[in-house]
Amino acid sequence: MLPSKMTFQALFLSLLCVVLGEPNVITHTEHVKVNEGNAATLRCTLTEPGDVLQVTWQKDSEKKHTNIATYSTMLGFKIHDPYQDRMNFTSLVLNDTSITFWSASLDDTGCYICLFNVFPYGSISGRTCLSVFGLSASVHYNISKGHLIAICNAVGFPEPTISWNNLFNYIPTQEKVRHTNGVMSITSKLEISDSQSISKQDLTCRVSNKNEEMELPIKIKNEQGFSFLGLVIALGILLVIVVLILITLSWRKRICKRTHGGESRPMF
Ligand SMILES: *[C@@H]1O[C@H](CO)[C@@H](O)[C@H](O)[C@H]1NC(C)=O
Ligand SMILES: *[C@@H]1O[C@H](CO)[C@@H](O)[C@H](O)[C@H]1NC(C)=O
Ligand SMILES: *[C@@H]1O[C@H](CO)[C@@H](O)[C@H](O)[C@H]1NC(C)=O
User: Fold this and answer.
1) Which residue in 73, 123, 161, 225 has a CA-CA distance of 20 to 30 Å to 9?
2) Closest residue CA from atom 8 of ligand 3
3) C-alpha of residue 99 to centroid of ligand 2, in Å
């Protein structure tokens, strides 16, 4: 069997590589760590001279590599859709490429691939990872038929923990979801069957991870407490109004008496 033209080409290219030495990629930014909201720059440089036709940045997901940004002298640069307003090339040198996320989000955590299309070698790639540290949380509750359900949500990296300041013997249930990039979502649900017992004291959800800590108080608007307070305020206002009316009436009476007396008396 005769070797085909393709195999000869491949053989030639591999020989060329052996002679010239295949270029390598240096990832200056092997593992970038930033706080959420800060800028993050990823950079790759090709070590040996080569004719770079195109540079492509991809996100390295478990199943597929999605294109983020491409640049070639022929076609110019393009930032692909979900990334368009969030990042840009910060170096348009073909053998020394960098991209910058203006405000990194938790979802940007992951590894990225820089792909150089080099003549005559083909694709040569480097890999660089980004970790974005952050924590966000929210809390909400509802009461129905004296039954209180409070739900606290936290999303963060590294893994957050949730605790409640409740001094009751209620144990919260917790659900965790770890996203493929390591970001953790936690939901803690606290059910209190006797919602009256917490009317005197506020409930607080405490969320923390290695970097941050936050407290999310719940102001329970206890319906009975609220209406009782409203009644007290209304009564107070009514009392003040009644007192004011009484004072005005008595003043008027006195003034009237005086003026009547004055009129009946001869002035001179
Ligand atoms: C990168 O390309 C420039 C020309 O665009 C060249 O002058 C430089 O030597 C190249 N650097 C390397 C490391 O190949
Ligand atoms: C992105 O960077 C390129 C090259 O530096 C520049 O021409 C372009 O205006 C930038 N785009 C935005 C949206 O900043
Ligand atoms: C109260 O919370 C429960 C549990 O999350 C939810 O199923 C229900 O729809 C909520 N009710 C209201 C009125 O928000």
Assistant:
1) 73
2) 142
3) 11
Task: List the Cα angle 64/69/135 in 5-degree steps.
Answer: 70
List pLDDT tens digits, range 43-64.
999 887 788 999 999 999 877 8
Question: Which ligand 1 atom sits closest to the C-alpha of 95?
Answer: 1
User: Atom 10 of ligand 2 has which residue's CA nearest to it?
Assistant: 88
125 within 8 A of 114, measured Cβ to Cβ: yes
pLDDT of residue 222: 58
Relative to the CA of 23, which ligand 1 atom is closest?
Answer: 14
Ligand 2 binding pocket includes 83 (Cβ within 6 Å): no
CATH number of the structural domain 135-218: 2.60.40.10
| Cβ of 142 below 6 Å from ligand 3 | yes
- CA–CA–CA angle 257, 259, 263 (5° rounding): 115
CA 111 / ligand 2 centre spacing (Å): 23
Q: Give the CATH H-level superfamily of domain 23-133.
A: Immunoglobulins (2.60.40.10)
**Dihedrals φ, ψ of 25, to 5°?**
-110, 130
Query: What are the boundaries of each domain within the chain?
Result: 23-133, 135-218
Same fold, 23-133 and 135-218: yes
Ligand nearest to the CA of 26: 1
Please enumerate in sequence order all residues whose Cβ is within 8 A of that of 122, keeping only pairs 6 or more positions apart, or say none: 13
pLDDT, tens only, 221-268? 655 545 566 677 788 888 988 888 888 888 887 766 665 554 444 444
Nearest CA to ligand 3 atom 14: 142
